[in-house]
Amino acid sequence: MDADGIDDLVGFRLAAVSSADAVYELLRSLILDGKIEAGQRLREVEVAQRLGVSRTPLREAFTRLISNRLLVRTSSGVVVADVKSALKGIRAIRIALEGYATRLAVPHLNEEDFKVLEESIKLALALPEEARTERVRNNNVFHGRIYNACGVPELQSAIDNYAGFFMSEANLSALSRAQSQEVIQDHVKLLEAIKARDAEGAEQLMRAHLIRGFNQPVG
Questions:
Q1: Collapsing DSSP states into helix, strand and coil, what is residue 111?
Q2: C-alpha–C-alpha distance, residues 83 and 33, integer Å
Q3: How confident is the model over 51-110, as pLDDT tens digits?
Q4: How far apart are the first and last CA of the chain?
Q5: For residues 17 and 192, what is the distance between their CA atoms, to the nearest angstrom?
Q6: Would you state the pLDDT for residue 17?
Q7: How far apart are CA 80 and CA 101, in angstroms?
Q8: CA–CA separation, 39 and 72 (whole Å)
Q9: Which of 203-212's residues contact partners 24+ apart within 8 Å by CB, and which partners?
Q10: CB of 102 within 8 A of CB of 65?
Q11: Minimal CB count within 10 Å: which of 1, 119, 128, 144?
Q12: What span, in angstroms and rounded, lies between the C-alpha atoms of 148 and 154?
């Protein structure tokens, strides 16, 4: 984006009735993908005009982005945070939270869950590399199905707060075909451990899976 701010947002214009969720998801994606740069000041009136939405959902979205540490409120207004500087700490948090959530989830996942996870793996194998939006969504389905069975709502909420920091379309664009296949095979091994009710093994596999993914270069 240019120094003036948000000219590129015109290409992402939303309907005037868009919810705070839609505005939040759009801005979060643009920030995480680097399309809105760190230090960029976001003027409420200007952003609302560019997106074609009212200021109420925009304010709600800003509040959520601030709580997720993607935006910072300063004396001069709302500014995009330096996300890259925070990624090392977020990596450690995600590995700990998601590994433990997987351990807790293993006893609770059932045959219906297994079917969803199996279908996710099949879809991952079938989707072309260029279908990045679908691949991100499918990956989120796989991980979400596991974490949502952990039985601790506060843990699920904490995971949700950090979930978008790494698995984005920009990350997928940077993965080679071989790396993408490794990710899918990790999912296969995870499902095998879950079916075997190997909670400790599943936790270790999830941790290794996340470490592998976080160590890949991003676009």
A1: helix
A2: 10
A3: 888 899 999 999 989 987 889 998 888 999 887 777 778 888 989 999 999 999 999 999
A4: 16
A5: 44
A6: 43
A7: 30
A8: 9
A9: 203/99, 203/100, 203/102, 203/103, 204/99, 205/102, 206/98, 206/99, 206/102, 206/146, 207/95, 207/98, 207/99, 209/183, 210/91, 210/94, 210/95, 210/98, 210/99, 211/95, 212/182, 212/183, 212/186
A10: no
A11: 128
A12: 11
H runs (alpha helix) in the chain: 20-32, 44-51, 55-67, 83-105, 111-126, 132-147, 153-162, 169-174, 177-195, 199-214
CA distance 156 to 147: 6
In angstroms, rounded to a whole number, what is the distance separating the alpha carbons of residues 92 and 84? 14
Whole-angstrom distance, CA of residue 192 vs CA of residue 197: 9
- What Rg do the C-alpha atoms of the chain give, in angstroms? 18
Tokens of 154: 């506060």
Q: Tokens in use for 198?
A: 């190997």
Place of tokens 């974490």: 147
- Neighbouring CB atoms inside 10 A of 174's CB total 12
Point out which residues pair with 14 in neighbouring strands. none
| Alpha-carbon span 41 to 29, nearest angstrom | 17
Is residue 107 a contact partner of residue 199, using CB atoms and an 8 Å limit?
Answer: yes
